[in-house]
Write a structure and sequence with these properties.
single chain, alpha/beta, TIM Barrel, 13 helices, 10 strands, globular, binds (3S,4R)-3-hydroxy-2-oxopiperidin-4-yl beta-D-xylopyranoside
């Protein structure tokens, strides 16, 4: 059939999906595309399951935003990726500025992961349990988790998540691990150690926030290095940005870039699916984060399919 998810499934993948956010769900023209599970068989909440949204003060949990996305996935017959349990960003200040002993922060992580993952038990295909643990040079990010607990914190979070929902696939997710180099090696070494230690880990997420003309040539090779360990992999946050306003030649290159990224996943059996980090330039996070850049999604500002869409179709 036609539609990105229908094509992905016909080709043996579990899903083609998209991120979405609560504020966008009142846009009927947008949701008409989002809700079409021929295009999207999986959704990820862009913000509403993050720590600042779900446990803004210690021990007080708010799930209304996350529930709205989870209920939408259920209504649409879409898989759900949970995003995320432990990340240095979008942390409430009681965590980021907390003065914790190792024992206290362990309890904080366990309680957060356990309560969050339990709340969505049975509704989530996969959880990004740990997000962005590494700096680009492959050293550990010096966040509150690492500063207090060192390299032990991913295992604390993963074990709590497994206990809370034994059927959810547990992922570590990061960016700039898509090319061979220090950061990909650091991630490989981390997951090898977790496996050796018997810590529950099922997958690695490759964010894939790329720049037009700069898709790394080693991406498929890196994916295969992870699946060789018995893990699944997924493209979790794909977008390919360019200088705005985008030129016709940039949009033509973007089509090729989308095709090559999706093709890398198609070529690797253990790559279960592809998620774009929202499908339209109307709601992309890119312009507000990367000054002067945007036009990163397969649908334009007016919800019209771009050449990039054809690039994805060509690979599926
Ligand atoms: C982004 C959201 O899309 C934005 O709305 C928010 O302001 C910042 O975070 N890596 C991630 C995502 O893992 O959680 C980020 O999402 C994009 C980069």
């Amino acid at each position: 059939g036609t539609g990105l998810n229908a094509l992905a499934k016909a080709a043996g993948k579990l899903y083609f999906g998209t991120a979405t956010d609560n504020g966008e769900l009142s846009d009927a023209a947008y949701t008409a595309i989002l809700d079409n599970n021929k295009e999207f068989g999986q959704i990820t909440p862009a913000n509403s399951m993050k720590w600042d949204a779900t446990e803004p003060t210690r021990g007080t949990f708010t799930f209304s935003g996350g529930d709205q996305i989870a209920n939408l996935a259920k209504a649409n017959g879409q898989l759900l990726r949970g995003h995320n349990c432990v990340w240095y960003n979008q942390l409430p200040s009681w965590v980021s500025n907390g003065q914790f002993t190792a024992a206290d922060l362990t309890t904080v992580i366990q309680n957060h992961c356990s309560t969050l993952v339990s709340h969505y038990k049975g509704q989530v295909y996969s959880w990004d349990v740990v997000n962005e643990p590494f700096n680009d040079d492959g050293t550990w990010r010096q966040d509150v988790f690492y500063n207090v607990l060192g390299t032990t914190y991913p295992a604390i979070a993963l074990k709590a998540a497994r206990a809370a929902d034994p059927n959810a696939k547990l992922y570590i997710n990061d960016y700039n691990i898509e090319q061979s180099g220090a950061k990909a090696t650091a991630m490989l070494n981390l997951v090898k150690q977790l496996i050796a230690d018997g810590v529950p880990i099922d997958g690695v997420g490759f964010q894939c926030h790329f720049i037009v003309g700069e898709v790394p040539g080693t991406f498929q090779t890196v994916l295969e290095q992870f699946t060789a360990l018995g893990l699944e992999v997924a493209i979790t946050e794909l977008d390919i940005r360019t200088t705005t306003p985008a030129s016709q030649s940039a949009l033509a290159q973007q089509q090729k870039d989308y095709q090559s990224v999706v093709q890398a996943c198609m070529n690797v059996d253990g790559c279960v699916g592809i998620t774009v980090w929202d499908f339209t330039d109307k709601y992309s996070w890119v312009p507000s984060t990367f000054s002067g850049q945007g036009a990163a999604c397969p649908w334009d500002q007016n919800l019209v399919k771009k050449l990039a869409y054809n690039g994805i179709v060509a690979a599926l």
